[in-house]
Automatic annotation (TrEMBL):
Every Protein inscuteable homologue C-terminal domain range: 61-513
GO biological process terms on file: apical protein localization; asymmetric cell division; establishment of mitotic spindle orientation; regulation of asymmetric cell division
One GO molecular-function entry: cytoskeletal anchor activity
Name assigned to this protein: INSC protein
Residue intervals of the Protein inscuteable homologue LGN-binding domain: 4-48
Any one annotated GO CC term: apical cortex
C-alpha cells in the first residue's frame, strides 16, 4: 500500500490511535458502550466520519496488521516463541477490531463478507491457540519441528486476511461507483469522487480494482454530462490516476475515452483547469514508460486535434502547473508517434515553447524544462528545426540548460536536472549537423561548458548518461571548429573511441587545488 513519507514520530503518533491494549480489547470486544439508546449512538458513530475517512482508517488498520504478520515471521525465524505468541494475540485483537469497526459503518455487509469475516476470526483464534501451546513446550527439537506448521498457519491467516481486505475494498468501490452512476446530485457525486480519488492514491492494486469494476466507464459518463461540468476537473484527475494501470487504459479505449478527451481539450468554453486535467490524462495514457499504451488506435485518429489543443494550452497557460501538464502530454506524444513532430513544426510549437521558457512564471521548475527539452530533442531529428532554433534564440536556451542545477537537493529534482542536461546535449548534437547552429553554439561558448561537464563529475551529478550526451555533442562541434579545443581536450575527449573517452572521464578524480 502506498504510504506518504512522514516523520517517524508523527507516523508513530498516528498508528498509536489504532493500537489498543490487548486485555482491554478482549474484555470490550463486540460489546456496546451503552445498553440504552443504541440507535442514537450508532447514528453518532456513522455520521462522525465520511466514507473516505472510514476507508482510510480501514487501510491504516490493514497496514498495521500486515506489518504485524511480517514481524511475527521474523520473530519465528529467531525462535522468539513468547514474542510470537504475544504478537499473535495482538493481531487477533486487531483483526477483530477492524471487522467490528467496518461493520459499524457498513451495517449491511453481504453474506459472502460475513463468511469471510467468520473464517478469518476462526483462523486467527486457531493460530493464537497454536502459538500458546508452543510456549508451554520446552523441548527445542519439538519446537523446531513445529516451526514449519506455524509458518504455514501464518501464511493461511495472511492469505485469508488479504482476501477479506480485497473483498471489502471491492465492495466499497462498487458502492462508490453506484453512487456516481445513479446520482444526479452534484454534492453526492463530488463526495463519491473524492473518496474514489483518495483510493487511487493508495497504489496500483486499488486502481486495478476500480478499473475492473467499471470505474473508467462511470467517470467518463460524468464527463459527458453538462450538468456535472463543475466536476470535470476532479473527475479527470481521478481518471489520470486510474489509467496508470493497463486495465484502466483498456477501459478508456473501449468507451471512446480519447474522443471525449479531444472534445474537452478543443472546447474553449471549458475552464483552463479542466483542459489541464484532460492534458494530464493524455500525458498518462501516452507515457513512454508504459508499454501497454502503444496500441491506442483511437489516439492516432484524434491526434491532430489533441496536439493542436495542447499547443494552444501551452501558449495560453496562466500558471506553471498548467504549462507542465500540457507540455508533458506533448513530450509523450512526440515519443508516441513521429508524425507528431511534423505537426508541432507546422503549429509553430518550437517558437511557442522557446518563448515560454523566457517567462520564469510559466517555466518555473526543472520538471517543466525537462518537458520542453524533450520536445526539442525529439523534434531536432527534422532538418527544418535548425532554422526555428536559430530564430527563437534556442541555442542560448540549450546552453542555459547545460547549467541546470537543483536548488533543493531533492532526489526527484536532481534527477530532473540530469535529464535536462542530458537532453540539451543530445539536442545540440543533433542540431549541430547544421553549420549555422554549430556556429552559433561555438560563438556562445558551448564547447567549454561541454568540456566542464565531461571532466567534472560533480557538474553532471556523476551521471553517465549526461557524460555520454556531452561527449557526443562535443565531438560534433569539434568537427565544425577543431581550433576551439585545447590539444589535451582533443586528445582525451574527441580523438579516442567514445567508449575510451567515457572510461577516462568516469575514472577522473576532480582536482580541488
Amino acid at each position: 500500500m502506498h504510504l506518504i513519507q512522514v516523520d517517524s514520530v508523527q507516523r508513530w503518533m498516528e498508528d498509536l490511535k489504532l493500537m489498543t491494549d490487548c486485555e482491554c480489547m478482549c474484555i470490550l470486544q463486540s460489546k456496546p458502550i451503552s445498553i440504552e439508546k443504541d440507535e442514537e449512538n450508532e447514528l453518532i458513530v456513522s455520521s462522525q466520519y465520511s466514507t473516505c475517512d472510514n476507508l482510510q482508517l480501514l487501510l491504516k488498520r490493514a497496514w498495521i496488521i500486515s506489518t504485524e504478520f511480517t514481524r511475527i515471521a521474523q520473530k519465528l525465524e529467531k525462535n522468539r516463541w513468547q514474542r510470537v505468541h504475544s504478537m499473535t494475540v495482538r493481531v487477533n485483537c486487531h483483526v477483530r477490531s477492524m471487522i467490528n469497526e467496518y461493520n459499524t459503518f457498513t451495517r449491511n455487509s453481504s453474506e459472502e463478507m460475513q463468511q469471510f469475516e467468520k473464517l478469518l476470526i476462526d483462523k486467527c483464534s486457531e493460530f493464537t491457540t497454536f502459538t500458546e501451546r508452543c510456549i508451554q513446550i520446552e523441548d527445542e527439537q519439538i519446537l523446531k519441528s513445529m516451526k514449519s506448521c506455524i509458518n504455514e498457519t501464518l501464511a493461511v491467516v495472511a492469505q485469508h486476511f488479504g482476501q477479506l481486505i480485497e473483498l471489502i475494498l471491492t465492495y466499497e468501490i462498487q458502492n462508490l461507483l453506484r453512487q456516481i452512476e445513479l446520482s444526479d446530485n452534484a454534492y453526492i457525486t463530488e463526495s463519491a469522487l473524492s473518496s474514489l480519488f483518495s483510493l487511487t492514491q493508495e497504489g496500483a492494486h486499488l486502481c486495478r480494482i476500480i478499473a475492473k469494476e467499471g470505474g473508467v466507464v462511470a467517470l467518463f459518463k460524468i464527463c459527458r454530462q453538462d450538468c456535472f461540468r463543475c466536476l470535470y476537473a476532479q473527475t479527470l484527475r481521478t481518471l489520470a490516476s486510474v489509467c496508470c494501470v493497463e486495465e484502466g487504459v483498456h477501459q478508456l479505449e473501449k468507451v471512446d475515452g480519447v474522443l471525449c478527451l479531444a472534445d474537452i481539450l478543443t472546447d474553449s468554453s471549458h475552464s483552463e483547469a479542466t483542459r489541464a486535467e484532460a492534458a494530464a490524462v493524455v500525458a498518462q495514457i501516452t507515457s513512454p514508460h508504459l508499454t501497454f499504451t502503444q496500441h491506442l488506435s483511437s489516439f492516432l485518429e484524434n491526434m491532430e486535434e489533441i496536439v493542436t489543443a495542447l499547443v494552444k494550452l501551452c501558449q495560453e497557460a496562466s500558471s506553471g502547473e498548467v504549462f507542465l501538464l500540457a507540455s508533458a502530454a506533448l513530450a509523450n506524444i512526440t515519443f508516441f508517434d513521429t508524425v507528431a513532430c511534423e505537426m508541432l513544426l507546422q503549429l509553430n510549437a518550437m517558437k511557442i515553447l522557446l518563448a515560454a521558457c523566457s517567462d520564469k512564471q510559466i517555466v518555473d521548475t526543472p520538471y517543466s524544462r525537462d518537458q520542453v527539452v524533450t520536445i526539442l530533442a525529439n523534434m531536432s531529428v527534422l532538418d527544418q528545426c535548425a532554422s526555428e532554433i536559430i530564430q527563437g534564440n534556442g541555442v542560448q536556451l540549450l546552453l542555459e540548460m547545460l547549467f541546470e542545477k537543483s536548488s533543493s537537493g531533492n532526489s526527484a529534482e536532481v534527477a530532473a536536472c540530469e535529464r535536462v542536461q542530458q537532453k540539451s546535449a543530445v539536442t545540440l548534437a543533433r542540431l549541430s549537423r547544421d553549420p549555422e547552429v554549430a556556429d552559433a553554439a561555438i560563438k556562445l561558448c558551448c564547447i567549454p561548458r561541454l568540456i566542464k561537464l565531461c571532466r567534472s563529475p560533480t557538474e553532471r551529478n556523476n551521471s553517465d548518461s549526461v557524460l555520454v550526451a556531452c561527449l557526443a555533442a562535443l565531438r560534433r562541434l569539434a568537427v565544425m571548429s577543431p581550433d576551439g579545443l585545447e590539444d589535451s581536450d582533443f586528445q582525451q575527449l574527441v580523438k579516442p573511441r567514445l567508449v575510451d573517452s567515457f572510461l577516462l572521464c568516469t575514472n577522473m578524480e576532480e582536482s580541488f587545488v
